[in-house]
Amino acid sequence: MHLAYSYTWLFCLTFYGWYCINLTGSRIIIEIDSSSSETDSRPPNRMYCKDQKENGDETDIDCGGSRCPKSVFAEEKNALETEESCVDYMKNQDETDVDCGGTKCPKCRDTKNCTACYDCISGICRNNMCIPNDHCLNKITDNDETDIDCGGLQCPKCGDMKNCNVSADCINGSCINHKCIPAESCTDNVKNQDETDVDCGGTICTKCGSSKSCTQASDCSSGYCDSNHVCSNPTVATTPANPTTPSPAVSVTTSVSTSNYYGTESISLRPSTILSNVIIVVTVQKTVGAKWTGMFNNFPGGSMTESHDDNGAQVTYTWRSTGGLSIGSVGGSYTATAQFDLIGTAQPTTGDTYNVTITTDNGQTSTQLGHF
Hints:
Largest sheet: 6 strands, antiparallel
Distance between the termini: 133 Å
Number of helices: 1
Strand order of the largest sheet: 8-17-16-11-14-13
Strand content: 25-35%
CATH superfamily of the domain at 236-371: Mu homology domain, subdomain B
Shape: elongated
């Protein structure tokens, strides 16, 4: 393409192609030769690749195109988009979990998936999971453990109902039938403490029911422990000190007064002879929340001691004569009364019991018991 019609002199420069400039007077005429098919072997002028501008055929400022350097960031981005790696947040290649495991990526942390030991930092792969190399934290029973991660000589002691071999394997220090059982209590299904039968009797647990073992009347909910040391429920039991001597004639009667918020249960004795010893026990069940509020008697002043016990299931009232007691005559009556508060429901007294043991001045002893 020729744009000049006259010229005085000509010089040519190479930029993107051959540019020939004719100068005639004050006019500038440019002649561009684009028809040449020859390859320019001279090095390109790349000054514009450093001018902090996007020009020429650059694809970004001073990079890209046919003359300027390629974009390093573009290459990296392209690689991330097209090539699998250990930092792509995906489980690919031969990884066993995301970006770990296999032959190319770093080993996996604990709890990550694995197929072999070399996939794991800990070097232990169990059930396709990396587990700690501390055997007390690997969620399996191994080494000398008696249960999962507990027991034995190296791991912590085991909790209740975990497997054990000896008491030292258990937190509570009690291993029975290869199980760590709770510390001694009234609900451990074991006859321990001072219980007379499993979880009943004694001074700590509730009284025992019928057919349970006992050592004394207070071990039994019926208030009677027979000669075979078994709790039973007779209406009257008489045990004379001298079998050839008739039982003393002592009349025992009961009375009850109860409302939704208050109640009393009384035992009255009417002996026909002199008594040297008297023990009266009244047991009030706490099925509707009975609460001890008091107890009293009309025996001669100072001749009876009073005590009570609340074990959470029942309240036991006890009157016991002091030494040197000498009471009773035909027509005389002596009463002991148990007093309690309620929380809105009348006491179902059929479950409450009494036990009266008396001894005459000639050493004859008898016991009467029953229900209110």
